[in-house]
Amino acid sequence: MALMDHVWVILFALAATIVVYTYLIYPILLLALHAGKTVADNIRYLITRRGRRIADRAGFPVEELPTVSFLVAARNEEEILSEKIQNFFDIDYPHDKMELLIGSDASSDNTVEIAKSCRDARVRVFDFEERSGKIGVLQKLVPEAQGDIVVLSDTNTFLRRPALRMLIRPFADPRVGAVCGELRLEAPDGTLQSEGAYWRYETILKTLENSFGCVLGANGGNYAVRRSLFPEIAGDTIIEDFVIPLKIRGAGYKTPFEPEALAVERNPVDVTAEFRRRVRIGAGDAQSVSMIYPLLSPKHGMLAFALWSHKILRWLVPFALIVAVASNLALVDRPFFVVTLVLQLLLYVAAGVGWYRQVRGKPPGVVGLPLMFVLLNAALAVGYVQFFTGRHKVSWDRTKRVEIT
């Protein structure tokens, strides 16, 4: 075998390893570690009669529940804002311990008027005329908040009635600095769409990582932070829901995932707009490396392991996919690599069929997962290009959503 053939084989093996490790091997390793930890915890309990989780989940006595400030950054949300405000009133939590702060990010529709039409003193509206993006609005709202805990939410995210009590419960432990709730994506008929399946996959990883105290970021529409610990981060931060919890984790506080704190988000229907949103997240991923790199040190143990496995290597997958195709083409004269090339081509053809069905307003069906895989990685690649060429934006535009029944 010629030297260049050896090089192509090594490149193909490396690219395939990155893809398979981050999407398959890492979850399996995490599951095995979780099973081992569970056995060890049970043995420890049998010997010491200590360590059961119920004590950690006791929460606050009713009379000691902390005050809570919901912070919502809104940009042209006239279609949905009234429902968001009603959702705030429907939450099962002492109403005298809640407030809702709505910050309009230079909205050009009736967002501000709709928000101000609510005469309840617990709803406060801030009309910011200069666009600053979500993090810019949040940084302006935090000093105005009066609650002990600030809950970061989006206009298209709706908390279930008991969700806030579950989200607040872990803060009974003074070592907890932030809590991530669960976010579910639902279609009108309740069926699991391709993004929903991928989201469930990510939720499983988050649950497993939670058992090791290494939750990586939060769901942007459903997480809470101790107001006193809200970190100073750059005003051009794109994915603040990833950076903020990790900054708090890096400061020595716990940032658990609370799956019983359930919220529902409306599933996107505009596939092109959703791709743009994913591109923005890709740019944010590239940006965030410079903000969280100290946590990549091995001294952070499982947190560093999770960051490398779940994030850093995952962010390299777009490059790995390109290398896999290029190296495979160079080796196509060998039977094994003919098979691998055909498999790759089938993946992209399936994704193309799924895209075609979605732009025509049809569900992708069985090709939904290939579509989501390719869509996510293509958006990551475009996001990287935008970030490194300086064409990314901190501000965002609303993505059209479907209704939940």
Descriptive report:
- With about 400 residues, this protein is of the alpha/beta class.
- About 50% of the residues lie in helices and about 15% in strands.
- The protein has 12 helices and 8 strands.
- Helix 1 (about 5-50) runs antiparallel to helix 9 (about 300-315) and helix 8 crosses helix 12 (about 370-390).
* Elements, N to C (H/E): HEHEHEHEEHEHEHEHHHHH
Percent of residues in helices comes to 40-55%
CATH topology of the largest domain: Spore Coat Polysaccharide Biosynthesis Protein SpsA, Chain A
So, CATH architecture of the largest domain? Alpha-Beta Complex
The average pLDDT score comes to: 90
How many domains, in number, for the residues? Answer: 2
Please outline the major beta sheet: 8 strands, mixed
CATH superfamily of the largest domain: Spore Coat Polysaccharide Biosynthesis Protein SpsA, Chain A
Instruction: Please tell me what the overall shape is.
Output: globular
**Count, helices:** 12
Structural class, judged by helices and strands? alpha/beta
The CATH class of the largest domain, by name, is: Alpha Beta
Spans where pLDDT lies below 50 across 5 or more residues: 401-405
Topology, element by element:
Layout: H1 3-48, E1 68-74, H2 81-90, E2 98-105, H3 111-116, E3 123-128, H4 133-141, E4 149-153, E5 157-159, H5 163-168, E6 178-186, H6 194-210, E7 222-226, H7 240-250, E8 257-266, H8 271-292, H9 302-315, H10 317-330, H11 335-359, H12 368-388
Parallel strand pairs: 1-2, 1-4, 2-3, 6-8
Antiparallel strand pairs: 4-7, 5-8, 6-7
Helix pairs in contact: 1-9, 1-10, 6-12, 8-12, 11-12
